[in-house]
Structure formats: structure tokens, C-alpha cells
Amino acid sequence: MQATLQASVIDESGAAATLMKDVMMSSLSLTADPSLAQVTAPLGRAERRRLARAARRWRRLNLTAVPLLARLCLVVLYPISAYDKVVHWNHALKQADSSIVPKAAGPAMLLAAMAVEILTPLCIVTGWHDRLAAFFLAGYCVVTAVLFQRFWEYPNFWSPSSKEGNEHFWAFFKNFGLLGGVLLLMVGGDPVPLSDVIDHPLNSAPMSA
To answer: Which of 78, 92, 144, 186 is 20 to 30 A removed from 133 (C-alpha atoms)?
Structure first.
């Protein structure tokens, strides 16, 4: 019995030695392969600098460029509208007189509208008091929709045959679409990095401020 046990121990020791030899030979062959040696070699200083620059560029794209582009797209309409009021003042004044506001208030209302259309986009794009600016711009969207897009005054406004009423109908709800974007800017949290969106495209957007 003792002899059998000793033989078993010797066999196990031999198997372990053979296994260690195989591992060592594999390691030597991996080290001898030039392509694998390049993979396992430490990065040089120039390569590290290149990777660091690439990481910084990607971080700027993630956290700066995409949110800035989104803000620009959200408010680009308003400065153009302010410029149009300056160039076509008489037409803008006529449109202001068509609302329920007294005609005498038309010029003052136009100047106030131009101030909102110029100042609030600047604040939103630069991030300076952007939530307060978004609050004023949200109010502006509601007021202009109610004053100038009164589609309910036209019969069959939902039909293309009622051209003016149908245009007011769609313009009214486009105003509220812009309102939704401005409200998200006002109450939303920090932007999600673009890499997170790419890695997890089906995840829901964060809703907390």
C-alpha cells in the first residue's frame, strides 16, 4: 500500500514538472515572437503624448462640442428673427398690430421681442445664467403662440383648404415644441457624454437636475 502511494506521488510530481516545462516553453516562444514583443512592450513617450492628445480631443467632443451644437440648434432661429424685424420693420409692426394688444404698444412690443431674441440665445449658448434665460425664452414662446398663432379663430383650421388657419395651427404647436426644448434645458441635468450614448444607445436619458 505504501509503495503504491509513493508511486502515485511520483507520478503526480512528474505530471506537474511536465506542465511547468510546457508553460515555460510557451512563454519562451511568445517572447521570441517579434509581433507579440511589440504588443507587450511599454509605450514610448511620443506614443503616450499622442494618446493623451487624442483623449483630450475626445473629451472636448464629449462634454463641450456636442452640447454646444445642441444649444446653437435650439436657439438659432431667434437672432435671425430679430434681424428680420430690423430689416422688415413695417411688416413686423403690422404683424404686431394684428394681435389683441393695442396698436400703440406695437413698437414697444417689437423692441422687447428683439431684446429677448438676442439676449436669451447669447446666454444659453455661452452658459451665462442660461436657466434664467431659458425661463424667459419659454415665456416668450408661450406669449407669441397665444398672441399671433390663434388658429382656433379659423374654421376648419386642421384642413389644408383653410390655408391661413392651417399655417397658424402648425406654427402654434411648433412654438410649443421649442418650448419643450427650452424647458429641458432649464430643468435638465448635466449632458451625457457622447461616448455613453454610443456605448448604450437604448438607455433612457437622465431626467434629474
So the answer is: 92
